[in-house]
Write a structure and sequence with these properties.
With 228 residues, the chain is α+β, with helices and mostly antiparallel strands. The protein has nine helices and seven strands, in the order βαααααβββαβαβαβα. It is elongated.
Amino acid sequence: MTPYHIRQYQERGDHKQVLDLFCRGMEEHIPTAFRHALLLPRTLLLLLGVPIALVLVSGSWLLAIMCSFFLLLFLRLFVKQSLKKFVALRLRTDLADITKSYLSEPGSCFLVAESVGQVVGMAAALPVKDPSIKRKQLLLFHLSVSSQHRRQGIAKALVRTVLQFARDQGYSEVVLRTTVLMRGAVALYKEMGFQKAGQSFFNTTAKLLAVPSIHFMCPLPSAQEREL
């Protein structure tokens, strides 16, 4: 196991590595998302129904096979472009200036896991600004670990550090959203005490692909409760 340590993000030296880590991590979800979309009942109906209709109309099996191929190609491109669109959005917004987005405001943080001088993991957290919520909540997101450094406890260490940060800052809860396709992340959060608090769809594409986001919440003991 390669040694690592968790520290605060530093603009100089970390920015490019963080962006590379984020982009590579998102690209890893393309095959899983494609398989999920492929196995949806409406997708299977389309892949079977359209070629069969072509055979019945034209009598050409070659045309039907070509149609199936292009439908599969279109589906994969659609999934890939949807994820690339999300990545581009993040690169244009909060990740464009991490210091401004996460380190210029009290009660927020951006952590990286460093190993042998390289950024191999990251996690970000911002306060939830919703007047309708009476509790003080910290939103955890952008949790990612390099594929070469997984199963070493880095993700758990990042989450623990965020939870400790939230306690020190007086937050009542840490909340987050992740998709049902990220089974490893879902299992990790449950193992670390997060509770499912609901689900929603991030956008129309997620709804079309039947990929809901799971809302998780981890309650934190107050200072008085910790003293007991």
